Amino acid sequence: MSEKNLNNLKLMSNVIYEREAYKNATGLGITEYCNENDKAYNDFIKFYDELLYEINAMSMQEQIS
Questions:
Q1: pLDDT in tens, 6-37
Q2: Contacts of residue 36, Cβ cutoff 8 Å, sequence gap at least 6
Q3: Which of 17, 30, 54, 63 is most buried, by the most CB atoms less than 10 A from its CB?
Q4: How many Å apart are CA 6 and CA 8, to the nearest integer?
Q5: d(CA 12, CA 5)
Q6: Distances 55 to 6, 17, 28, 35, 44 between C-alpha atoms, Å
Q7: pTM attached to this predicted model
């Protein structure tokens, strides 16, 4: 990883599975296309929340150093 300068790469815990809903949501956001109880919606929201958490954690770490 260091040879490709990917030292800050992090493997996320949540997975966005290949879902038909993602293909059908072209032009719309997944949250606009799906209902809140759809698996695709929940997968995406969990991933998005985790991504925001990691971004905020990185930002705070940069402020400390």
A1: 777 888 898 888 888 888 877 788 888 899 99
A2: 42
A3: 30
A4: 5
A5: 18
A6: 16, 22, 24, 27, 16
A7: 0.69
